[in-house]
Amino acid sequence: MEKTSLRGIAFDLIVDSVKQFIKGYSNKHKFVVGLSGGLDSTVTTWLASLAAGNDNVLGLIMPDNDSTPLVDIEDAQKVVNLLGINSKLIYIDQVLQAYKMKLNPDTKALGNLKARIRMSFLYTFANSENRIVLGTGDKSEIYLGYFTKYGDGGVDILPIGDIYKTELQELASYLGVPKNIIVKKSSPRLWQGQLAENELGVTYDVVDRVLYRLIDKQEDSKVIIKEEGEKARLVIELCNMSEHKRLMPPIAFISKSTNNQAMKKIHCRA
Questions:
Q1: Which of 91, 113, 126, 177 has the fewest beta carbons closer than 10 A?
Q2: Cα–Cα distance list, 15 to 8, 162, 231 (Å)
Q3: Least-confidence region, from 25-29, 165-169, 251-255, 265-269
Q4: What are 86-104's pLDDT values in tens digits?
Q5: Residue 267 reports pLDDT greater than 90
Q6: Does pTM surpass 0.90?
């Protein structure tokens, strides 16, 4: 029997769908992606290379000496070598230090700053080389709000944004991604010892099961919590609290002819 995802979608269909999505943007642009050595960025880069060709994908490896393990840099370089894409290794420490000389951020603020520095590097290459910034967020992290606003959330397109984390692990195996990357504990690596599931307080198995019922099946949240337990309540609360991260900033409209709903429908093409 052909292997399928959490939602019963065959992995070859997922791959084809994402490839077609990426190809829709590849006619006029090349791509740049932040390559961390983790699962999400690896699969995103892998699919982009399959869709657009390795010559059209630039991977930026952007470690810092404080919180990036050597194995992540090695794994990112391994992906570059396997795919044959272009890459650049840029340590962000000097830029980070320049901020720290003017500011005194706590651990969380410093971590988010690292993500925003990496975003600025990505967009500098995108602007100067006419590239599109590929986002590496998966569906689980997007709905949990587990990303930095205007950091790793600051992107042009999200190729794997409709793929749950547990689906992504199986998809990676299907694609032939090295096993050590697939089984690596998920972490944004914004500070030492940071692990996603520890910080969230819930495993991705539970997260994906709850979000699947809540978003895809549109089941009542009270029923889900009753059947799945208090961890489900936590997942749903995280989803609700992070809604602002998935929306454009609200506008204070002064004209009755426009509002936030109307803005979504406006098409400016002649």
A1: 91
A2: 14, 12, 31
A3: 265-269
A4: 999 999 999 999 999 999 9
A5: no
A6: yes
Longest dimension (CA), the chain: 59
For residue 75, which of 178, 165, 176, 152 has the smallest C-alpha distance? 178
195-200 long-range contacts, Cβ below 8 Å, gap at least 24? Answer: 196/146, 200/144, 200/146, 200/234, 200/238
* CA 103 to chain CA centroid, nearest Å: 27
CATH class as words, domain 11-185: alpha beta
Q: How far is CA 57 from CA 51, 171, 176, 178, in A?
A: 10, 20, 19, 19
Query: What ranges do the domains of the chain cover?
Result: 11-185, 201-243
Spatial CA neighbour of 208 closest among 2, 15, 44, 7? 7
Structure tokens at 173: 């195996």
* Structural contact between residues 253 and 161, judged by C-beta atoms closer than 8 angstroms: no
pLDDT digits (tens, 9 = 90+) for 18-37: 999 999 998 888 999 999 99
- Nearest-CA neighbor of 159 among 53, 15, 56, 35? 15
- Residue 1: which pLDDT band, with cuts at 50, 70 and 90? very low
